[in-house]
Amino acid sequence: MFRRILHIDMDAFFAAVEQKRRPELIGKAVVVGGMGNPFHRGVVATASYEARAFGIHSAMPLKTAYRLNPQAVFLPVDYETYTAESRKVKRILREISPLMEDVGIDEAFLDISSIRRSSLEISQEIKSRIREETGLTCSIGVGPNKLLAKIASDMKKPDGYTRISPEDVEKVLWPLPARKLWGVGPKTEAALKSMGIERVGELASLTRDTLVAAFGKAYGTFLYEASRGIDETLLVTFWEPKSVSRETTFQRDVGHWQTVAKTLAGLTKEAVRVLRQGGIRSKTVTVKVRFSDFQTLTRSVSLVHGTDSEEEIRKAAFACFKRIDFRKRIRLVGVRLTHLEKAAPISES
């Protein structure tokens, strides 16, 4: 059966949610990130399309965004509200097809291969329902696999619809910058440029052996296939977390042990809450500390049995923290819980 995969990508999601609940922000440059103060540490989580026109983009320091547009409206991240809106969108998608891969708060893949309607008709229904039930817009890409669907969804934003078929690879995919391939990051982009490769089509001109020699068997094979629009990966409709982590960057470097300890206790409490919500336990606790000079240290403790006890995990976290030489001011502190296992069900007597 011919595969039809949709990639649904919400348009400037966080900023769009803020503009929906505050209509006076519609048409304005809105930047969502950190605590919403461009003079404090933090990065851009999402920028409205009006803000993007000034060169502001995700992961950019808020201070840089402010320099690019001092008149922009800066707002703090409100994950609780965004998560609530995301749930509405994901419910709509699951009603269209139960074969959904949830890949983030603002995006998902949907397998519509078995639905006897056109891709355009299904996409129009999704767009219409999302707009009616949330007041938001999304861009949808359609392809025979996840790779092409994701690339397609980014081609006509906002509120776009793009379909890439196997026959379109040479015409549509090959002229794109190599960085547009899902899975190609800054390091690979730089490595490819050093080889004289900037476009997907130029990458596709290389042999598998050449790419394997340069990037290793697994990644070299991926680049060879991706540049040709080949992707056989299936949708992951269910997954279990491998870790739970929480960390924070202080607005100013901290030199007081008590302040860091109080923050670590709060982060541990949040991580344990996530454990309990998922019905899972952790056997390994790791604490991360980044100093003012960006030196980063981690310390771990392995427990005899998996636990979701806040007291046990907090004690383990502080045992890790005490093993770190606290001679410099601290920029960041975090806790990570790994070696997760399902909590045993309680049997009735």
Structural description of this entry:
The chain is α+β, with helices and mostly antiparallel strands and 349 residues long. The chain has four domains: 5-11 and 80-168, Reverse transcriptase/Diguanylate cyclase domain (Alpha-Beta Plaits); 14-79, MutS, DNA mismatch repair protein, domain I (3-Layer(aba) Sandwich); 174-226, 5' to 3' exonuclease, C-terminal subdomain (DNA polymerase, domain 1); 244-342, DNA polymerase, Y-family, little finger domain (Dna Ligase, domain 1, 2-Layer Sandwich). The chain is built from 13 helices and twelve strands. It has helices spanning 13-21, 49-52, 62-68, 79-96, 119-134, 146-153, 169-173, 186-194, 200-204, 208-215, 217-226, 257-277, 310-321, and strands at 5-10, 30-32, 46-47, 73-75, 100-104, 107-111, 138-143, 161-163, 244-254, 280-291, 296-307, 330-342. A five-stranded mixed β-sheet has the order 5-6-1-7-8. A hairpin with a 2-residue loop joins strand 5 (100-104) and strand 6. Helix 4 (79-96) packs antiparallel against helix 5 (119-134). The radius of gyration is 23 Å and the shape is globular. The N and C termini lie far apart (50 Å).
